[in-house]
Design brief:
The protein contains 2 helices and 27 strands. It is mostly beta strands. It has one domain: Beta-galactosidase, Chain A, domain 5, CATH 2.70.98.10. Strands 5, 10, 12, 13, 16, 19, 20 and 23 form an 8-stranded antiparallel beta sheet that branches. The chain is globular, with a radius of gyration of 19 Å.
Length: 360
C-alpha cells in the first residue's frame, strides 16, 4: 500500500526568481521553485546543474498569473462550455489564472523543507490548499492538494496535473516511459471518442499509422493521447541518457487514474511534451463528460458535495543516469527508497532515490 506522509516545517521566505514572486525550497542536492502568481512549478533541478526539465512556458517578469513548467488544471481539464466561457470560465479552469496565497508554517522537521500555499477559485467555488515538501537530502519532493467545495450545492469537477518538459532536456534523445495501459487519441466523435483503441506505448494516427509514444516523432499527430493506469502505483518518467538526467512522477491510481500526453514541435524538433496525470481522460466540457460518463470502465469526472473536501497526492524526482541508459521498465517503493529499474533485457540497472520517509 502506498502512503504519503506529510511533515510540518518552516516555509522559506518569499523571494524573486527572474522577476517573479516565488518560494524556493533547496537542500544540498536540489532546487525547487514554486511560482506564486498562477501556482506553477517552473523549476526543479540539481543544484550542480542548470538543466531544468520543466523549462517550458514564458516566465515574464512581474506578478501576472501564468502557466509554466508544471501547472494545475482545476476545476476542469480543457475547455468550458460555450455558456461557461461567456461567464468568464477559462480553459483548464482558474487555478493557473489566480494569484495564490502563501501560508506560513512555523514548525521544522528532519524529514524535509516545507511550503504551503492556497488558491481560491471564485467561479468554480473551490479552494485548493497545497503542501509541498522537499526531502532533506535528495532530489525528491511530494505534493498534497486538498480541494474544498465552498458552494452551497454539490458539484462535479476534475483535477489534472499538467507538467510539461521542454528543451534542452527534451530533445531527440529523450525517452518517455510509463505503466499506463489502454489509450486513445483526443478528437474522436461521440458516442465513441475512444475509438480506435491502442495499448501503451503505441498510438494510432488519423491515417492509421501505428507509432511509439516513447519518443517524439517528426509529426505532431496525434497531438493529445490519453491512457488509463491499471496498477496501484502510477508513474511517468522521461529520461535522456545523452543529457545524463531522469525526471519523473509517481502517484496513487486512486488519486489520478488517467495519464494524458501532448507534444509540440518547433522547426521540426521537440519543443514541448506534457505528462498530465489526473482524474479525467476526455478533453471536453462537462456536458460531454456527463453524457459519456466513463471510458475503459474509468469515470471521467468526480463529485464533491457542498462543504466537503478531497485530498490528492503525488511525488516528483530527479536522478543522474549514464549515457547508455535505455529507459524505465519498472518503479517500486521499497522501504525508504523509490527503486527505478531500467528497461533492458540483460542486466538492467537500478536507481535508488531516497524518499526521506515522505512515502511508504
Amino acid at each position: 500500500m502506498l502512503t504519503f506522509l506529510w511533515p510540518f516545517s518552516q516555509a522559506l521566505a518569499e523571494e524573486r526568481v527572474r522577476g517573479r514572486r516565488s518560494i524556493v525550497l533547496e537542500n544540498d542536492q536540489a532546487r525547487l521553485v514554486l511560482d506564486i502568481a498562477g501556482g506553477s512549478i517552473p523549476e526543479f533541478r540539481f543544484r550542480d546543474s542548470e538543466l531544468n526539465p520543466l523549462n517550458w512556458g514564458r516566465r515574464n517578469p512581474g506578478d501576472q498569473p501564468g502557466s509554466m513548467g508544471h501547472f494545475l488544471c482545476c476545476d476542469r481539464w480543457g475547455p468550458p462550455s460555450d455558456a461557461e466561457g461567456k461567464n468568464g470560465m477559462p480553459y483548464h479552469g482558474e487555478s493557473s489564472k489566480v494569484v495564490w496565497r502563501v501560508l506560513q508554517d512555523t514548525e521544522t522537521t528532519a524529514a524535509g523543507i516545507h511550503a504551503r500555499m492556497a488558491a481560491d477559485l471564485p467561479l468554480a467555488g473551490l479552494t485548493v490548499d497545497r503542501s509541498v515538501t522537499l526531502a532533506t537530502s535528495s532530489a525528491f519532493f511530494v505534493v498534497s492538494e486538498t480541494i474544498t467545495n465552498n458552494n452551497k450545492l454539490g458539484r462535479i469537477f476534475n483535477i489534472v496535473q499538467h507538467p510539461t518538459i521542454g528543451p534542452p532536456f527534451l530533445d531527440e534523445n529523450c525517452v518517455v516511459d510509463s505503466n499506463c495501459h489502454r489509450g486513445f487519441a483526443q478528437g474522436g466523435m461521440m458516442p465513441n471518442p475512444e475509438q480506435p483503441e491502442f495499448l501503451w506505448p503505441s498510438a494510432i494516427t488519423k491515417d492509421g499509422e501505428r507509432i511509439s509514444m516513447r519518443r517524439m516523432t517528426n509529426s505532431e499527430e496525434p497531438s493529445v493521447t490519453s491512457f488509463v493506469i491499471d496498477e496501484e502505483l502510477g508513474w511517468a518518467i522521461a529520461s535522456n541518457g545523452k543529457r545524463g538526467l531522469l525526471f519523473g512522477y509517481a502517484w496513487k491510481r486512486s488519486d489520478y487514474p488517467w495519464l494524458n500526453h501532448w507534444w509540440k514541435l518547433k522547426d521540426g524538433k521537440p519543443n514541448a511534451r506534457g505528462l498530465e496525470f489526473g482524474s479525467t481522460g476526455l478533453h471536453q466540457p462537462f456536458p460531454v463528460l456527463v453524457k459519456k460518463r466513463e471510458i475503459f470502465g474509468q469515470q471521467l469526472f468526480e463529485h464533491l458535495d457542498t462543504g466537503k473536501n478531497i485530498t490528492k497526492n503525488y511525488a516528483s524526482f530527479l536522478a543522474k543516469i549514464p549515457e547508455g541508459f535505455k529507459g524505465v521498465g519498472k518503479v517500486a517503493i521499497q522501504g525508504g527508497s523509490l527503486v527505478i529499474t531500467e528497461r533492458a533485457e540483460m542486466r538492467p540497472r537500478t536507481i535508488n532515490i531516497a524518499t526521506g520517509g515522505l512515502i511508504q
